[in-house]
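Running co-folding for S-adenosylmethionine.
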Amino acid sequence: MADKRRFELFAQFLTSHFPDARRVYDVAGGMGRLNEELTKLGRDVTTFDVRVKRLNVKYAERLFTLDEPCEADLVVGLHSDGATQLCLEYAAKHHIGFAVVPCCSENGTSYNPWRKHLLALASERGFTEHGEHVLPMAGRSRVVWGR
Ligand SMILES: C[S@@+](CC[C@H](N)C(=O)[O-])C[C@H]1O[C@@H](n2cnc3c(N)ncnc32)[C@H](O)[C@@H]1O
């Protein structure tokens, strides 16, 4: 069971780490709980996912792809299943920041090699600043970020 504090903790990390990012794409945002927390902190957030049952937040009911027009300063993915590397690739394409909290690998490896792969990819894609941060919660709590 994923830690329910993840939305608030990730939102706090994002606003402190990317203070100038006003417009945020929340990829694979499920019901929109991260959107709700980021909105409380003054961000303009669009959640991309296909959940019918959801909160009253700005919501694009579709799967996010690399072709999505960019009107964001930051793209994020919290336990975003198959869309985690996509966030990084999208950010690289549009020269914006990204932050993801991976839960499972997309390349057949286990969790730790997958995190390392994302960090290496951030470097390869030209994010001059990138790194990891651990959210103070149980379960998959490591943020991989770049800008
Ligand atoms: C494990 S859930 C996490 C939801 C939410 N972020 C959370 O932490 O509770 C993964 C979500 O990823 C969504 N998803 C996977 N690929 C996606 C894509 N390309 N675009 C949008 N949503 C995607 C699924 O529909 C699902 O809601």
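Result summary
Strands lie at 23-27, 44-49, 59-61, 74-78, 97-101, 130-134, 142-146.
The chain has four helices and seven strands.
Job closed.
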